[in-house]
């Protein structure tokens, strides 16, 4: 068994067929079929069932996939670390966070790490939480700071709670409710809303808040997922929106916007660390994670794991 055979098998898992995998690998179908047969002969198990829908992994194939991915991750990090040593670095840390969270949580911790380890390279990926968690599962990130609202921990991962983000009502300074510190669903139901598209977590939580009071979610006058656009729209008219407090705090609005607490149990979002359960973090990555926990951890509760 060699690395190329494992890589070929992983391509078949990913693409679901010999033809698509061969095209992605830029090899011929007969060559890829031969590689798979040699691997099956060596392991003395059948890795795939050939069906009308393509190649379906057997129980042995699923077992191979887990270990092959781990080998691939190890090789990726070996190459990265060797390259960093060649270029004079002492290591690479790859971390991710959503665009709202990254400026709030990562800069101070990274500054502390790089002060202690000047030759370290920290690569920061910003994306939505599901995409970041997938990158953690695939081994492309050491860990990520993500929203952890779901009770089910992603497969093969561990998560540890850091703190709760608050979703708040945001209006312009001259809005009729701007002087209030707390509002109810009934208070804001009568105003025109700017909402993110269906499926957005903010919209889902707002819908739950309205349903808890026996009210339908208001029909928006504007739909947009850009926080910057939402804030600009609110500055122009008496709209109402629900945004993360961090997204308002992250840039100065010169007092043009006001945030107001919404009296609802559905306006908090847990934020935490996500990392692979079967992966031993490098010293530098573990150090950065510890620095983030020290600065932002709420109660140090133990992480939940998926086993």
What can you tell me about this protein's structure?
- With 307 residues, the protein is α/β, with parallel strands linked by helices.
- The protein folds into three domains: 3-72, Arc Repressor Mutant, subunit A, CATH 1.10.10; 88-163 and 269-305, Periplasmic binding protein-like II (D-Maltodextrin-Binding Protein, domain 2, 3-Layer(aba) Sandwich); 165-268, 3-Layer(aba) Sandwich (D-Maltodextrin-Binding Protein, domain 2), CATH 3.40.190.
- 44% of the residues lie in helices and 23% in strands.
- The strands form three sheets. Strands 3, 4, 5, 6, 7, 10, 11, 12 and 13 form a nine-stranded mixed β-sheet that branches. It has a two-stranded antiparallel sheet with strand order 1-2.
- Helix 1 crosses helix 2, helix 1 crosses helix 3 (29-43) and helix 1 crosses helix 4 (59-86).
- The longest helix is centred in the first third of the chain and has 28 residues, at 59-86.
- The two termini are 28 Å apart.
- Residues 299-307 have low confidence and may be disordered.
């Amino acid at each position: 068994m060699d690395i190329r055979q494992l890589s070929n098998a992983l391509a078949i898992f990913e693409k679901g067929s010999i033809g698509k995998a061969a095209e992605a690998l830029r090899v011929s179908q007969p060559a890829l079929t031969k590689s798979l047969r040699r691997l099956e002969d060596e392991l003395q198990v059948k890795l795939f069932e050939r069906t009308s829908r393509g190649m379906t992994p057997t129980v042995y194939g699923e077992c191979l996939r887990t270990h092959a991915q781990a080998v691939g991750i190890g090789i990726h990090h070996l190459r990265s670390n060797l390259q960093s040593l060649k270029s004079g670095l002492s290591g690479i840390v790859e971390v991710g966070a959503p665009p709202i969270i990254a400026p709030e949580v990562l800069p101070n911790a990274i500054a502390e790490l790089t002060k202690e380890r000047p030759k370290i390279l920290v690569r920061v990926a910003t994306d939505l939480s599901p995409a970041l968690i997938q990158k953690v599962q695939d081994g492309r990130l050491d860990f990520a700071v993500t929203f952890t609202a779901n009770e089910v921990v992603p497969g093969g991962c561990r998560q540890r709670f850091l703190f709760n983000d608050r979703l708040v009502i945001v209006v312009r300074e001259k809005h009729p409710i701007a002087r209030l510190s707390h509002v109810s669903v009934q208070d804001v139901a009568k105003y025109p809303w700017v909402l993110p598209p269906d499926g957005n977590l903010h919209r889902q939580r707002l819908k739950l808040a309205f349903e808890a009071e026996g009210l339908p979610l208001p029909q928006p006058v504007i739909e947009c997922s850009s926080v910057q656009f939402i804030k600009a729209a609110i500055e122009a008219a008496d709209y109402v929106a629900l945004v993360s407090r961090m997204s308002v705090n992250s840039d100065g609005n010169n007092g043009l916007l006001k945030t107001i607490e919404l009296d609802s149990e559905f306006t908090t979002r847990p934020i935490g660390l996500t990392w692979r359960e079967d992966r031993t973090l490098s010293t530098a990555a573990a150090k950065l994670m510890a620095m983030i926990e020290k600065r932002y951890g709420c109660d140090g509760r133990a992480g939940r794991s998926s086993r």
